[in-house]
Please model this.
Amino acid sequence: MAVDWWQMDPVFFSIDERGVATITLNRPGQLNAINMAMRDLLWEYLGACRDVAEVKAIVFRGEGRAFSAGADISEFGTAPSVMEARAARHERDLWWELLNHRCLTIALMHGFCYGAGLELPLCCDVRIAEEGASLALPEVTLGYIPSACGTQTLSRVAPRGVASHMILTGEPVDAEAALRWGIVDEVAATGGLAAGLERALERAAREDLRARRRTMVTLAEIPAPWPGRA
Model:
């Protein structure tokens, strides 16, 4: 069966008439594990959203049964040298770009949200998880630490004991626990992420939801993210 070329693109990008850009991770066969090709596309699309004045919000989602299972570990150790790998990350610092982006950023999370699949949403303004989602920073089980801001961002949105436990053990938490601990802002029913997105956009029309992320960047205390939650 023939497959259209665009279906093979590891990241989809679109902008609707409201100025809402959607960035879709599209390696469902690999649970959307983020490889270098995806990082490059994410960098380019974030730059496009920054430069296109009509874009007001960016939505991240994952194709298939997971948001993202994390970085593609099959690429670990394939860089020509440690210094070249470090230079590439410095020149295209995807996470700093996301943390400092002018647009509202929303992550729609489902299935596995592990490693970079949790760190990316932690850099966003609003995180909505579907029932059944599993969130973790499992890097310690592979002998390294979260390298995409996870140690800094998780400890600034969740209680420090919870953040330390997740970082030091790699154990996952479910969506309801993530909501209770402030890691996500809403838990949507199965199939309800689209409705959750509309609620977030409606709220964004009334108030600035980017203040929490700006506070995170300044390393200050973070206010309660959602009304009615201490």
